[in-house]
Amino acid sequence: MEVIAIQKSALDGMKNELKALLELTENATQKYTSIFNEEQWLDNQEVCLMMNITKRTLQTYKDKGLLPYSRLNRKNYYKLSDVQALLEVGQPYNTAENGFTDE
Q1: DSSP class of residue 21?
Q2: Mean pLDDT score, 80-99
Q3: Domain of life, per the record (predicted)?
């Protein structure tokens, strides 16, 4: 067994930093929990599977503003209600009105 000795002031400093980190984590969790509890959110893969589209098509929908999304920690999330609304009106690819054509 290895024993490491450190000064009490260093140990107290580490405790304080850990407490601050825990508080930041709890605050962030509380901040985003209410957002995620209000509605079900889907990631890219779930949306692609649900809509039966490719990631590239999903990117096009985002670029054209057809599907709103939120970004959290470099990952995109979509409200289930927004995806369902887009599915109800029909997938908007290959229509002249929104710029999607086979030509």
Answers
A1: H
A2: 73
A3: Bacteria
Q: What is the pLDDT of residues 31-40, one digit of tens each?
A: 767 666 678 8
User: Nearest 5°: phi and psi at 66?
Assistant: -80, -25
Q: Is 42 helix (H, G, I), strand (E, B) or coil?
A: strand
Cβ atoms within 10 Å, residue 83:
21
CA Rg value for the chain = 23
Angle (deg, nearest 10), helices 44-51 and 55-63: 100
Residue 71 CA to residue 67 CA, distance in Å, equals 13
| Euclidean distance between CA atoms 84 and 82, whole angstroms | 5
Torsion of CA 57, 87, 67, 74, to 10 degrees: -70
Output DSSP code: residue 39: S
